[in-house]
Amino acid sequence: MKRMSGRTALITGAAEGLGKAVAARLSEEGARVVVIDRDAAAIKRASAELDMADVTFRQVDMMDGDALAATLAEIESAL
């Protein structure tokens, strides 16, 4: 059994760099991963690069409280 099986990780700003690497590693360890970033183009690239069934990508600006709340509610209901 993998260390993160049955757990969910929400990573913000994770479409590039360190966040993307953390998302990939957590997925490898068995976690369901939700990647949030405001950059739609970066999300699209990351989605293609991290083609894993247990990684979900959402484009949202963390500074937009209403959009963030709606995205979090959507993610929670999907779990």
From TrEMBL:
Domain of life: Bacteria
Keywords, alphabetical: Oxidoreductase
Protein name, entry field: SDR family NAD(P)-dependent oxidoreductase
Residues of the signal peptide: none
Family affiliation: Belongs to the short-chain dehydrogenases/reductases (SDR) family.
Record-linked Pfam families: adh_short (PF00106)
InterPro entries for the chain: NAD(P)-bd_dom_sf, SDR_fam
